[in-house]
Design a protein that fits this description.
Elements (H helix, E strand, L loop, with lengths): L2 E2 L1 E3 L2 E3 L24 E4 L5 H11 L3 E6 L14 E3 L5 E5 L9 E5 L5 H12 L3 E4 L13 H7 L4 E6 L14 H7 L24 H22 L9 E6 H7 L2 H10 L16 E6 L2 E6 L3 H11 L13 H6 L1 H12 L4 H10 L3 E3 L4 H6 L1 H5 L3 E5 L5 E5 L23 H7 L4 H9 L4
Parallel strand pairs: 1-15, 4-5, 4-9, 5-8, 9-10, 10-11
Antiparallel strand pairs: 2-3, 6-7, 12-13, 13-14, 15-16
Helix pairs in contact: 1-5, 5-6
């Protein structure tokens, strides 16, 4: 059953806590480990918003700056669209809801001097600024790091770009799909040459953006820790230069090392593993399964269960190095065997022998999985447009300061008035700014 969060007198409450989830109800006031941190989020789309949502989940007070009447581009990346309380589609796409909870939305036109003044006021009170404009794009508005550090020397300012603040590609726009190609991910993803459907393939989610958001979060917290170390001066803020291409190359992990150590360019292996065999998908009597054998002992146990103990003593297959070298001979033999039982039968038999095996789930099966449900990975948050906004829970489980869910992803400009009032603007001034298109 889904965990449904409801608004109570003190904010979010729930009648049913997700068992083992560590996702506690909370008041609208931040209470997590970063509850003392204020974040001004000028970023859009995914990488920056992913970082600011993670900071918000950990308690930071996040103000999201959006363009009046337009907002974050992902609000329009539909269908599907979130439904309101009457089941009718809203103007906000599902994409927006993956990375914008625990934020307040303030609409500001930063091309107008009065809009720039509002952002500078907020920056003066913030610990962190996040932005993903093109290199130099905020300088003309006086909102770049050099300008804002004057009003707040303690500021940690994180710039996320496609290629970084310098280098021959610095001026280029960067997109996840493009970076997956340029950064090598697509060269090792997809079916091998000679197989049906062969060719480079992107990952099914914008993984470079997600990983960049996570690296940004780590960098921001490191910069905050440095700033706040005992004995450091109050002016020890800094600029974080984070590039999608850098992140993609860094995350090539073992494939990068395979190339750097051997000098041989890795190719595509479909679902196969370059360093471990067998470690891929196999057909079964009713579909497919994943077999992930990590050592020679596991392979021997698999062979016994599969009815072919001789494979584990065959000189070609007895060691992982031999299996990698002779994968072309071994894999067809395994496929002829795995089709004799169903996925469930293999999973039961192999798990009992401590051999990793499992199904290939679609998303319906993922969210129906008893372990996923036990961990509370799906939840619903009441939304300002009416009805509920489904969410995927944060996977971090902190025993003393758990993640909390204070704000559903906001409707555009939902918090404009309250944020401006906190800066000292009265109702008449706010109305004038709205009329002028500043907010």
């Amino acid at each position: 059953m889904d965990c449904v969060w409801q608004w109570g007198s003190k904010g979010l409450t729930t009648a049913q806590s997700p068992v083992g989830a560590g996702n506690t109800p909370s008041s609208a006031e931040p209470s997590g480990p970063l509850s003392h941190i204020k974040v001004l989020d000028l970023s859009r789309v995914l990488a920056g918003p992913w970082a600011s949502q993670l900071l918000g989940d950990l308690g930071a007070d996040v103000i999201k700056i959006e363009r009046p009447a337009v907002g974050d581009e992902t609000r329009h990346w539909g269908p599907p669209w979130l439904a309101d309380g009457n089941g009718e589609p809203t103007s906000d796409a599902a994409y927006f809801f993956c990375c914008n909870r625990n934020k307040r939305s303030l609409t500001v036109d930063i091309t107008k001097p009065e809009g720039q003044a509002i952002v500078r006021q907020l920056a003066a009170q913030s610990d962190v600024v996040l932005e993903n404009f093109k290199v130099g794009g905020l300088a003309s508005y006086g909102l770049d790091y050099a300008s804002l550090r004057v009003v707040n020397p303690k500021l940690v300012y994180c710039s996320i770009t496609g290629f970084g603040q310098d280098g021959p590609y610095a001026e280029r726009a960067g997109y996840d799909f493009l970076i997956q190609g340029m950064g090598g991910m697509m060269s090792v993803t997809g079916r091998a040459n000679g197989e049906a459907g062969a060719g480079p393939q992107k990952v099914g989610v914008a993984l470079v953006d997600v990983l960049s958001g996570m690296y940004a979060t780590v960098a921001i917290q490191a910069a905050l820790a440095h700033r706040d170390l005992k004995g450091y001066r109050a002016g020890d803020g800094q600029h974080i230069d984070l590039a999608l291409l850098d992140v993609q190359v860094a995350c090539l992990a073992n494939q990068a090392m395979n190339y750097l150590v051997s000098g041989k360019v890795p190719g595509r292996l479909g679902n196969g593993h370059p360093n471990i065999v067998p470690y891929q998908d196999f057909p079964t009597a009713d579909g497919d399964m994943l077999l992930a054998i990590g050592n020679d002992g596991q392979f021997a146990r698999f062979c016994e269960i599969a009815g072919h103990p001789e494979w584990s003593t065959d000189a070609r297959f007895s060691t992982n190095a031999g299996r990698v070298k002779n994968r072309a001979e071994l894999i067809p033999l395994l496929r002829q065997t795995t089709v004799m039982k169903t996925t469930a039968e293999w999973t039961t038999l192999l798990e009992s022998a401590a051999v990793a095996c499992g199904p290939i789930n679609d998303l319906a099966a993922v969210f129906a999985d008893p372990q996923v449900q036990h961990r509370g990975l799906r939840l619903n948050m009441p939304h300002a447009a009416g009805g509920n906004a489904p969410q995927v829970a944060n996977p971090i489980h902190l025993s003393a300061t758990p993640v909390d869910y204070r704000h559903s992803p906001p409707v555009l400009g939902q918090d404009t008035a309250s944020v401006l009032e906190s800066l000292g603007y009265d109702a008449r001034e706010i109305a004038r700014l709205r009329e002028a298109g500043v907010v």
